[in-house]
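Quick log. Single chain, no ligands specified.
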Amino acid sequence: MRNWIRSRFTPAEDVDGWRPGTAMSIVAHPDDDLYFLDPAISAAVTAGAPVTGIVLTAAESDGRNVDVNDPDRESAPADHAGYATARHVGLRRAYARMAGLPVDSPWEQQAVTLRTGLTVERDRLAARPEIVLYFVNLAHADGFSRYTVPPMADGEPVVSPVLSPLDLPLPDQDVDRETLIGSLVELIDEHRPTVIRTLDPDPEHDWGQPGRVVSDHVEHAATARLTIEAVHRIGCRRPVPPVVEYHRAYANRFWPTNLSPRMTTAKAGLLATYAGADGAPDPGLPYGHGDYQLGPDPCRSTHMFSTAARYAATTTWLTRLPGGRLAAFVVLGDRLAMWTERRPGSGTWRGPALIGEPGLLPTLAVAAAPDRPVSVVALRRTDRDGVVDVEVGFLTVDGRGRASAWTSLGGPDAGDPDHRRETGVPAATVDGAGDLWVFVRDFSGGLSHRRQSGGVWQDWTPLGRGPLQDVPVATTDADGTVRVFVAAKTTVATWRQTVVGGPLEPLALRTGQVASGGLTAVRTAGDRPCLLYRQGSPARGPESRDETSVIRAYRAHDTGNGWPGGRGADFGGPDGIGPVAALDRTDAGAGDLVMAQRNRFWTVSVAVPPAKEGRSRWRRLPGMISGAPALAVDAEGRGVLAVYGLDGRLHLSRQDGDLPTDAFGPWTTV
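-> predicted structure:
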């Protein structure tokens, strides 16, 4: 048996006055936290943050707590309450391990009746009472054959029974949709999280099947949809709503992995504990001390090797308004929040101001051009009577920080709401004529775009070449022409204009494999575009994952049209997740870029030139963050780093001078 017990996270640092925040996860099943949301949860626990987990279903499955690969499992007796209880035990043991405690550390278990009338199980880790787990224990209405959470999400008049665990009796209860959402709102109000993590409300379809065969568990999407409604109700009455992060689940198997070997080993250790396969002594519980269906080796599942956001982070959310003031944009709850500098280059800020319509999803594409209002492009999601629609739209912000009304651009799959639910996150840029271009992945998995021409919006146009990963990146060259890049499974697809106003033409690139979670394009000396990405590995197969998450730079030839072969230069850096922010400096080469990334501790690491032996110098800054960092140049020519902290506040650091080599100063908190 493999010894998983040795892997541990190193504690993250704190900033004076900057706490790590309060984290909450809302998931369908006990292992969703560990498979799809971690290592974010581990990082928060290690940093000493209050952490609350809410599991909606009893997850009783077929009631057989036996390895799914065991040929004799069908002959095992079914015990639905026993299997659900064993999964609870496994999750408690995994959380104790996250906290650096023995896996058999005691928990205080209580049946708690909420104001809605719903009685839930609340488990509090005795040695770390700020770590709390809630089990709602919604059961299948008709045994294993019928789920109840999905029709609740659709607004159907159904009720779910509660399955009482064997180690903490709960009363007989029938739970309807309004009671469940009200209970989530009550728990959010009680624990006041600064970040809520949940699953994918609109998972992509299975690319290997004809039509629309959903790739994910129906209870994952339903849980996310119910969370969205609870978050909306919270945001309507809270001046600073929590940031919400949505995580892919089974769809991770389609795309290159993004966790480094070190992060994968730590994640596998927690799953082994949850499964009762970590070699720890068996406490002899009659129902088991873990989820034995997972078997002895967590790495036999492709879920192990990625933790990917459904609405992946971007690095353009800090930008300069007309007149020189910097502005930052983040989605809080389901509303757009904006912070602005009081004066250009002053370093003093005001905000957040909540602007625009509710219903926004987290990823923003911010497109700026000199002396023009900034365009903030987003996805807006509506869910009325179980009919979901996702539209692309934007608003503009002028030099005084005044926002326009929301303008809807519809979506590339008009007329089919189910297809539009899979609309990818947007990219945007402004061309040399001042027209806005917007790009998203469509239902086919290819790229579609909509553009202005002389200020008039053209129809959505498919570019094709799917299936592509999400998160395209759009840029404008010095001559005003547009480029767009998007990662595929094994390389990067790209299109470019040859003249302003002309069509987009495809180019062939031969990059390395891009990990799930983002791509960055910057201009370097000679107006040469440079791609920054993390090395990925195949989701399936025996290939080595030793270099997964390593940062690479892939730069165009001098003409800007030809590109080299190979997988790019190794920029090293601490392992992490998500896109790399970089300053767009046409006076510097790729090795002289200022860069920032979210590392495995969920803090930010910064690199300033000069590079040494092909590797930039990375320095880890304290303070846990959400999403990805952003970099911009202020009115004084100084680089500015912005992060949205898990404490629910905007934090900024400014370089000491206007040279790329200048160090970043201390954090300023808004």
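The helical segments are 32-37, 40-46, 80-98, 149-153, 177-191, 218-235, 261-274, 417-420.
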